[in-house]
Amino acid sequence: MNFSKRVTSIQPSATLAINAKAQEMRARGENVVSLAVGEPDFPTPPHVIQAAKNALDEGFTRYTAVPGIPELREAVAGYFSRTYSIDCRFDEVMVSNGGKQCLYNILQAMVDPGDEVLIPGPYWVSYPSLVQLAQGVPVVVPTEPEDDFLVKPESLEKHVTDKTKILILNTPSNPTGCHYKESALVELARWAASRNIFVICDEIYDQLVYSPAKPASLCAFWTENKDKIAVVNGLSKTFAMTGWRVGYVLAHVGLIKSMSKIQGQSTSNICSIAQKAALAALSGPLDFVQEMKSAFVSRRNMAMEIVNSWKDAYCPKPDGAFYIFPRVDSFYKGDVDSSARLCQVILEEEKIALVPGQAFGDDRCIRISYAVDEQLLKDCLGRIGGLLHKL
Ligand SMILES: Cc1ncc(COP(=O)(O)O)c(C=O)c1O
After folding, report:
1. Ligand 1 atom closest to Cα of 234?
2. Which of 16, 44, 100, 102 to mutate to test the pocket of ligand 1 (most atoms within 8 A of CB)?
3. Between vectors from CA 184 to CA 369 and to CA 291, what angle results, nearest 5°?
4. Residue with CA at minimum distance from ligand 1 atom 1
5. Which residue among 44, 237, 249, 282 is best mutated to probe the pocket of ligand 1, counting the most ligand atoms within 8 A of its Cβ?
6. pLDDT at 163 over 90
7. What is the model's pLDDT at position 24?
8. Residue 194 DSSP SS3
9. Cα–ligand 1 centroid distance for 347 (angstroms)
């Protein structure tokens, strides 16, 4: 069969592939632990589940408006308004099947063949492929662990050409967990505006920022620059709702209309029942998130202590999300000469699944998710450290 250049140019998601491999090994009876997970290990809050049950009982099972039911769009606008003290209307937001589809829609709506999209690396695995699916060209701008993997305008500037159209920012970051201060984020947005580059700011982990760091967002900047910024967020991480597939975006009303057109001709509205659940999540209390956060902080601190004891490993302390991204290339020796090989050896010998940094554009590092039980995490990190020092 002759497949399109678009589909042959992209790779399957590395993180989903590793989790599938771990599940396969488990199905064969092997006792595999996955530290490759990209989702909170907490259940969806009960009031959200109840709202979905009510939606079913009430027969709320039909097509809805493509960008979301009006009351959910009002709740999303309310979330942005409350959290970031901004004014936004319901027609400046829409809901899609996860933050991933929001990103897909924006890129489909804005990128023409050959347009270049700046992506600071390490980056979330899907950004380059989403750009390629829109026939754009991903341009990776590397960052260093010593700079907390944060990009500066000077580095971006070196990669700008007359084809540069978009910059994708992500804070806190998957895979590094590192987080921009609001002033740094705004400086980047100002720089992009001065170069006529549109910014997509992926803030899907915005509620998972750990004190003393403060949540940062481009929402306030957006209110003065509505045609220059889109802010992507969603319920997957904040409300432990990865399977429900609810993401949302704040953007210029014209971009919302274009994205609705694309979504209307591809997937239509997201699941009607998930919309009612999302409405309950966004209109309800956030104490659930506080509990999750304190568990993550404790695990992060413990993980940092162990990883810092690994000879020659280097890991900036992350302020958010639930990942650490240590640099471990000092351990590469013989045929263990890449992050992929190292993760393969760790999986085969210790039965622990990790994602190689290569998948995120930095082969010097490995991604460790701490969205797992603290004791299990401690045990796994101890075993990984033991194996690294034996290499
Ligand atoms: C940085 C980042 N953006 C977006 C997403 C997409 O999440 P979802 O499509 O579940 O909303 C993820 C999920 O892992 C992510 O880590």
Report:
1. 11
2. 100
3. 40
4. 174
5. 237
6. yes
7. 86
8. helix
9. 24
Helices (H), the chain: 5-9, 14-27, 46-57, 70-84, 98-110, 126-133, 153-157, 182-194, 219-224, 253-264, 272-283, 287-308, 339-350, 374-390
Instruction: Say if strands 164-170 and 198-202 run parallel, antiparallel, or are unpaired.
Output: parallel
Q: Whose CA is nearest to atom 14 of ligand 1?
A: 38
Separation of CA 204 and ligand 1 centre (Å): 6
Question: At 12, is the pLDDT very low, low, confident or very high (cuts 50, 70, 90)?
Answer: confident
Q: pLDDT by residue (tens digit) across 80-100? A: 999 999 999 999 999 999 999
pLDDT tens-place string over residues 336-378: 999 999 999 999 999 999 999 999 999 999 999 999 999 999 9
Structural domains in the chain, sorted by start: 5-43+287-390 (3.90.1150.10), 46-283 (3.40.640.10)
Q: pTM for this structure?
A: 0.96
